[in-house]
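[09:14] KT: can someone run the structure on this one? pasting the chain below
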Amino acid sequence: MGPAELDKTLAARLLPATDAGLYAAAQRTVGAITLPVSAMMLSALPRLYREGQEPTAQTSHLLIWIFAASTTYGLASAGALWLIAPLVEWLFGTAYHGIQDMIRWLCLAMPGMALRIAAGLVLTAVAPPWMRVSVELIGLAALGLGSIILISYFGGVGMPLAIAGAESIMAAIAVTMVIWRTATAAT
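[09:31] RB: done, structure tokens below
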């Protein structure tokens, strides 16, 4: 969960105060919308811990459903949030003028974020701790480097682009590690 907090710290250091505040508020909104993925994973974790060291065909089917549901939810919620972004800005009030645009840019991160949450928690259950830690460290490095580079080119929009990139990288690596781990554990 490191990038979910580091991004706000980086935004505070790399962006003007107004942009950093809008980013933090928008990111908290997006983070709250991904909570159903965490809830889904909490219900699946007991089974994943039980079957994680000796996965069966049913475990593989569960993982496929988890990853498909997470990705679908991330895409659907991003689309819905994109559409209701003006309403969110109205709810936040005039002090948060411009949050609509930041939320829309953060919609790019939602599919990767949802899949990263799911794959990261699966890794926690089925793999050695170093795998999950390495995904987090890679994500932190990608976010740090990406935010510095993208903010220098795109200004305030660079931060949502950096988090979208970091979340997608982490999701791809975590899913790859889960596939590798369950394939090697099954043999």
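[09:33] KT: thanks! The mean pLDDT is 92.
[09:34] RB: yep, looked fine to me
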